[in-house]
Design goal:
Elements lengths: L1 H8 L16 H9 L3 E2 L9 E7 L3 H12 L5 H14 L8 E4 L4 H7 L3 H13 L2 E2 L3 E3 L11 H8 L3 E3 L8 E9 L3 H12 L4 E9 L1
Parallel strand pairs: 2-8, 3-4, 3-7, 7-8
Antiparallel strand pairs: 1-2, 5-6
Helix pairs in contact: 4-6
Bound molecules: zinc ion.
């Protein structure tokens, strides 16, 4: 009811072409259907398996990520679930697996107002029935990775993460980010999980940059 009222006042515009009516128009949905889920596009240290919905070269996926990252977007839930469905179909993890979003630093989260990785995690949770837990926190404020070279990204992120609010480490984790590029952020998070006894780490993102 609330969503339909919002949609009436602010009708959704396709993130791909701007057409009014849905966040992804039929053309954008068809383009997404042709994009395959990618398993292990790169090796990431400490990570057992990497699953991404598709390439950042797939325009609707890239536009979806940008919309998610830079705009506060209330209508995202249903669209994200539909986009992530094919990825979830390829997911094979134990039932007690916990979903862990890559955390933002508290300061950046305040500036932005939300953590896009948490929004993706919640969509994954609804699709899988697995719970989301804030096991990690970002203890150091870092330069955004997108502004840095591959080498700089690795050093920029070292020591950035530590244990979060939740104190019990699970055996299996889905580590969630919006985009995986060099994998240095995911690797740094996964290293902290490994040090604390997490045995199975699956990294998930919407797109491979
Ligand atoms: Zn469109």
């Amino acid at each position: 009811m609330f969503t339909s009222m919002i949609n009436f006042i602010f009708p959704p515009l396709c993130v791909h072409c701007g057409t009014e009516g849905a966040w992804l128009c039929n053309t954008a949905q068809q383009e997404l259907k042709r994009e395959n889920v990618i398993t292990n596009p790169i090796d990431i240290k400490h990570v057992d398996c990497v699953l991404v919905r598709g390439s950042y070269d797939c325009a609707p996926l890239a536009q979806l990520v940008q919309k998610l990252k830079y705009h506060y977007w209330t209508g995202v839930s249903d669209t994200l679930e539909a986009v992530l469905q094919p990825l979830v179909a390829e997911l094979h993890v134990p039932k007690d697996t916990v979903i862990v979003p890559v955390p933002l630093h508290a300061r950046r989260q305040r500036e932005r107002g939300f953590n896009q990785s948490l929004i993706i995690s919640k969509a994954l949770s609804r699709l899988t029935g697995l719970r989301v837990a804030n096991i990690l926190q970002r203890q150091r404020y870092t330069t955004p990775q997108a502004h840095l070279s591959a080498v700089e990204r690795t050093t920029n992120i070292i020591g950035a993460f530590s244990q979060g609010a939740e104190k019990k480490w699970p055996k299996s984790v889905l580590l969630v980010d919006d985009v995986i590029t060099t994998g240095s952020t995911i690797s740094e998070c996964a290293g902290v999980l490994r040090q604390n006894g997490v045995q199975k780490i699956t990294a998930i993102a919407i797109a491979k940059g």
